[in-house]
Amino acid sequence: MQDMGSHVCTQHFLGGSVYYTVYVPDGTYGKVVVACMPVGEERNHVSHTVSSLLKYGADMGVAGVLFDYPGMGESGGTAGDFSLQGSLETGMAVLNEAFPEYGSLEMVFLGVRSGSFTAADLYRELGGFLILWEPFISGEQFIKDLRLRERIRGSLTGSEEDGTVCINGEESSPEIYSELKSRTDILEGIRTSDVHVVRISNSGTVPAQYRSISKTGSYSSVSCPPFWNAHEHWDTSPCIRHTARLLLEEA
Amino acid sequence: MDANSDIRSKIKNMLVERLMLDIPPEQIDDAEDLTETYDLDSVRLFELVIGTEEEFGISFEDDEFSPEKFSTVNTIAEVIREKLS
Predict the structure, then answer these.
(1) Does ipTM come in above 0.90?
(2) Strands ordered across the beta sheet of A129-133
């Protein structure tokens, strides 16, 4: 592998409602990684890590793009409007804007936590390869995660918690429940050979939700600090090196 | 080691691993207030709940959570014993 050098460009479009960053190798490239970020507080926890990965990939000749859904991160809008269908449409719009030639490129969709729903949706639309970092296997799991986080936050701040699902402190639209509940298996319709699930943890345990995947071979575990501590020292983390290897050698 | 001691020992190992504590597991007292001693915010508390689920193969509904249940090694062990019984 040879370090080619790269450049990074940030852009707002669609009236400022969508923000994205592209990572472009200095030479020619034939592959692009589309990073689909998680929502809520996890988006902020992993942004530096994903950014470092894409920069590393671009230095090695793989283009990349990282984008925020409306209402998240640097994008404008309201977090309460988040929907899976809207995220898919945002991802397609970003691809059209950032890599209009994407039809001639190999596509790799990187889904991080809840971003895995959008990554899987983009894969179903466009094909390619899918790398999922600690995905929720079902929409129900994601709802449970959001509710538990809200309950814990409420217990520490003394605020009432009524079981609603909030993202970035904003109550979600009712549509998100039915969207997520309809997702009983995130890998539905996806060929096993086109997906790799990465578990990132210091723990050697395979969580129950990944046990069936771990038996298929499309699963690996990286010993690494968890996401919430990630931003402190992840530039050269085992997770980035492991995923970069998948990008360069398998995907 | 009896079953209760085994659970507490696993909890302490999990705490050190998940919360990235720079202390040996045996230094954690069974009755010390974890939130106060280790400055647990909502993110770390969430990690603790998820870690307990994964380590012991159990599952919590969101309305089963209360800070009291996760306040000490002893209270976490009690929750686990109830779940496993």
Answers:
(1) no
(2) A6-13, A18-25, A63-68, A31-36, A106-112, A129-133, A195-201, A219-223
